[in-house]
Amino acid sequence: MNNLRYWIWFTQAIGYCTTKAKQLTFLYNSIEEFYLGGESEWRLSGLFNNKEIEKMSKIPLDISDEIIGKCITYFYDTVCIDSPEYPKCLFDIDDPPAVLYISGALPDIDDRMSIAVIGTRKASMYGIKSSYNMAYQLSKAGVTIISGGALGVDCSSHLGTLAADGVTICVLGCGINYDYLRENAKMRSDITFKGAVISEYPPDTEPKSYHFPQRNRIISALSDGILVIEAGSRSGSLITVNSALEQDASKKIFALAGPVDSHFDGSNKLIKNKVATMVTDYKDIIDAFDNVYVTTELDVSAQPSDDVIDVIPIKGKPPENINGLKTYDLSEVPQHKENLNLSEDEKSVYYAINYEPVHIDKISEITNLPVFKILPIITTLELRGLIKCVQGRSYRLI
After folding, report:
1. pLDDT at residue 305, as a whole number
2. Closest Cα partner for 131 from 397, 392, 382?
């Protein structure tokens, strides 16, 4: 606990994504020893400039106590860079986080195969279904799935893992209790029962634009390989790929080939330039590793049940009708499926939709549910192949 106080103090003074935390672990027996040495010792270390030393001298140690108290209140765990529990794969990069804040239980990432599944927030339905399906199958093979908790590909990969009863790690670019992407709050809560939501930023830290590139180095470091599902030419996913290759030039990069359009420019270019291996099946990823121990006794041939995702492409095959549109007589009585094991709110939303497009505001009016509660339900229903977004924020039965 003492080391935790000093490492939190260090991050409040120096910041995040710095090489200096790791360098201190080699120079001193403990961070406490460094702190107690005072300004003269900080200068002698040769690591800090005058501005940084001035900042350290002004930041009181008890600033850490408030953050630790918040962690205790919310039952968050913490792991310091010099703790035995700190992942070796994360320590091995140049700029590992001084502190990890954890909701849930961080799996033994060093001894378990892990794959990061990443892609655009504005994913197509093909990208959403593919990320869900690949994460589901990899999880069934015992692979830990790592992603960033964002909308689109990230969210779908986490949901696919949860559907497979697998283990997933969600790495955030803000404090883990910050109300960021409220529509994904339930997903993040569910992850903590089968994995962990983690961040290098203390609780209550607001997301900043530069946090997400910093966050990406953690995703890549924790992963044995990176799977890019759908990425444009300027996608943040490419930052994660570059980070992975800077950390380890032999890191395995995979990509799912997509249509020749701007949404897949980045993914396709990775394949074309031989930066990434093209995959069509989760086994392509498993087979690429010669010396990785996959901890599983699960049936890797198991497919997602029809009740869960009856139109999701199995083993990477695209849907028969990639646009997903079917022809219906709009005067036809909606044929809602039965026995879908939906929650009451999910049923309410599902039965508010028919073959003619229904706007989300109308769904809210019919169900008496706020839009922010409807959005994650809509995502679930889309992933299960029950509905489709056809225009704007309007939805119809499939």
Report:
1. 37
2. 382
